[in-house]
């Protein structure tokens, strides 16, 4: 019998069909399977085997507990060295001595008051040796406060600054004084007499900010600190928030900080935490101390003392009756003494007074 090619293909197809139908589905075998319980035998002295995921350097990975809100990293404040420009005052003016060029100093002063008033025309009078600003508010009024002033006709005080420049052989002098402008209920403007800024902390704060500006201008335009690290250590420094600091030295220790305090005009109140004050610990007012209950004078009369009461808080104390916490900040430039004066009305003024007292100035 002759077998054709087609018959062979049909026979192979039938065999494949029959074999496919005979395959049993054994997928349950995998579901019912169990792990091998045989214990792996290892040579003596080796580590015991364990069925565990091994993470390299797991002990160095930071562990997190409860979920916390994301906090953006804070850029550390930049510390700026200040040239110790001589700051003096008499009955009429505060004087700042600066080695800077007279023309550059005048430009820096103009820019300073323009930024202070947020205008391009802060000067009402400007000559080579004398400048006078326009009437500038102590602070910008809100819309509601401005509306209330227009209704009551009670407008906030404004200040006018006068700046005089005196040329010297080795350095120049910048003199500053001010007068107050008031607007009455009848819209009549009254301008007071010229006053020394040292008599009012509001104005002295502005004076110190101008002093900072002129000092940093000298730093930028000269090599004042480039070759004398000792000058940098003994001078005042300033951070971005306007707080003054003293640099004790690059290799300074806590004992050096104590020595600076002992040699200054300040008193060490406590070491832990580190606190200082202008008065001794025994003279420092405390909660619970007796104080006089005084009624202010009215209509030209005299103050009345009703008696003594226990002090319940320290909110009524003057800046020189408080104690201040010291924060020590280590930077590549040195160890800095920084004082928290945020609870005072004019923090930069109190900070300046504390730091100059530390330097025995």
Quick overview of this protein structure:
With 361 residues, this protein is α+β, with helices and mostly antiparallel strands. It has helices spanning 5-21, 28-31, 102-117, 143-152, 201-221, 229-234, 254-262, 347-358, and strands spanning 80-81, 87-89, 94-98, 123-126, 130-133, 136-137, 158-166, 172-183, 189-191, 236-238, 244-249, 267-270, 275-277, 290-295, 304-310, 323-331, 334-339.
Summary keywords:
361 residues, alpha+beta, TATA-Binding Protein, 2 domains, 8-stranded antiparallel sheet, 7-stranded antiparallel sheet
C-alpha Rg (nearest Å): 39 Å
What is the CATH topology of the largest domain?
A: TATA-Binding Protein
Describe the biggest sheet? 8 strands, antiparallel
- Average pLDDT: 80
CATH architecture of the largest domain: 2-Layer Sandwich
Question: Low-confidence stretches at least 5 residues in length (pLDDT < 50)?
Answer: none
Overall number of domains: 2
- β-strand percent reads 15-25%
Number of DSSP helical runs: 8
- The secondary structure category is alpha+beta
Described by the principal axes of the CA atoms, the overall outline is: elongated
Measured distance between first and last alpha carbons? 130 Å
Counting DSSP E segments of at least 2 residues, the number of strands comes to 17
């Amino acid at each position: 019998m002759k077998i054709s090619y087609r018959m062979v293909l049909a026979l192979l197809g039938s065999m494949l069909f029959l074999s496919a139908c005979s395959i049993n589905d054994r997928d349950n075998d995998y579901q019912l399977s169990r792990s091998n319980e045989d214990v792996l035998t290892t040579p003596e002295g080796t580590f015991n085997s364990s069925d565990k995921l091994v993470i390299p350097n797991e002990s160095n990975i930071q562990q997190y507990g409860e979920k916390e809100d994301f906090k953006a990293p804070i850029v550390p404040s930049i510390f700026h060295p200040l040239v110790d420009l001589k700051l003096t005052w008499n009955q009429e003016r505060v004087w700042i001595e600066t080695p800077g060029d007279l023309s550059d100093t005048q430009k820096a002063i103009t820019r300073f008051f323009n930024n202070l008033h947020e205008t391009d025309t802060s000067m009402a009078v400007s000559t080579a040796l004398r400048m006078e600003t326009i009437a500038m508010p102590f602070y910008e009024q809100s819309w509601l406060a401005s509306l209330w002033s227009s209704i009551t006709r009670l407008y906030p005080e404004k200040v006018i600054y006068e700046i005089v420049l005196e040329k010297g052989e080795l350095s120049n002098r910048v003199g500053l004084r001010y007068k107050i402008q008031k607007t009455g209920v009848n819209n009549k403007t009254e301008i007071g007499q010229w006053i020394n800024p040292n008599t009012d902390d509001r104005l002295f704060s502005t004076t110190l900010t101008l002093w900072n500006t002129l000092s940093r201008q000298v730093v930028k335009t000269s090599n004042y600190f480039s070759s004398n690290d000792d000058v940098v250590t003994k001078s005042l420094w300033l951070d971005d928030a306007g707080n003054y600091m003293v640099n004790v030295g690059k290799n300074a220790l806590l004992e050096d900080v104590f020595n600076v305090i002992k040699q200054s005009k300040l008193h060490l109140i406590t070491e832990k935490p580190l606190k200082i004050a202008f008065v001794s610990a025994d003279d420092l007012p405390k909660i619970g101390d007796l104080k006089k209950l005084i009624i202010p004078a009215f209509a030209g009369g005299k103050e009345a003392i009703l008696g003594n009461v226990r002090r319940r808080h320290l909110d009524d104390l003057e800046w020189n009756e408080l104690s201040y916490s010291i924060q020590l900040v280590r930077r590549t430039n040195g160890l800095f003494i920084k004082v928290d004066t945020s609870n005072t009305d004019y923090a930069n003024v109190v900070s300046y007074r504390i730091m100059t007292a530390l330097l025995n100035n």
